[in-house]
Amino acid sequence: MAQLIKGTAFSPYFTGPLLYLLTAAPPFLRDPLRLPENYSAPLTTSLKWLFAIGLVGKANRWLSNWANRKWLRKDDKSAWDWKNEVAVVTGGSGGIGAFVVKGLVSKGVKVAVIDVLPLSDDLRDSANVFFYHCDITSRGEVRKTGDAIRSSLGSPSVLINNAGIGNAHNILDATPESLRAIFDVNLISHWYTVQEFLPDMIARKKGHIMSTASMASFLGVAGMADYCTTKVGLLAFHEGLIQELKYRYNCPEIKTTIVHPGWTRTRLIQRVEEDLRKAGTPILDPKTVADVMVKQILEVKSGQIILGPSIASMLRALPAWLQEKVRDKNSQLAKVRATTGKAI
Q1: pLDDT at 67 over 70
Q2: Among 133-147, 179-193, 216-230, whose mean pLDDT is lowest?
Q3: Is 20 in the active site?
Q4: Which of 108, 158, 202, 253 is most buried, judged by most C-beta within 10 A?
């Protein structure tokens, strides 16, 4: 109810007509609503401010949506026929990725799952799910798998880079092996998969590349600097990809989405889930995250999706002391992670 009232108060579609009725409507409409002056003047002033704020909000959303379309006038959804589309999902054997696969398959999409883990039991019997064992940290294996997918299914029009691992190490405790692993999986592999599947999308001027990042994209905290760094880097990769699609490959038609989930109930947090609950930390269901991702694909939209506090992307615009307070709070929680070897 509070959200409804808030949404109405800031909607220019509500405040505009009401302001008109109170100040500029013909007398036969205005007179029945006339209030005593000591009420009317403050109400009118408030409505003017709410109307202005609502208009600014509408303009901001319109401009943001236009920017997400890479300054194209509109999205051409007619080019997409889901029963004839092929999607690649990395890390699709379980967790969020498996729910994404199910969501796409339910719409008739053929899905190539590339993973080092076998398919979950509920995916094995689907006629539209095709499994390819592939180490995405190897450019050679990604190339070989890409050739196999194109040979069997055709050129993919959707690439969902969902695979990720989590380590929780203090900086002095991180080993070369653990650093290499987390950077290779969470970041470097995106170069390999995009290099493999983007050229066909450019040739067809059609495609969608989606990356699963994290709320950790927006801040660095104690005990998980390695993980945070890969997600910050992934956000930079995503932004650079958008710019190259527009200005290097002249292909703004290709959609791009980056998703930032908060703590999500997957195998990565099994050892710390109870501690997170005791700390009152919200935990997302993997299907909830996947449903948002699938919806974005099916609606043929680009954008940045934040599944947590919407202010997160504005963190670095806040005063330094307030930024540090946010990092302090998260670093206290990270003490749990640092002792378990697991992160989101």
Answers
A1: yes
A2: 216-230
A3: no
A4: 158
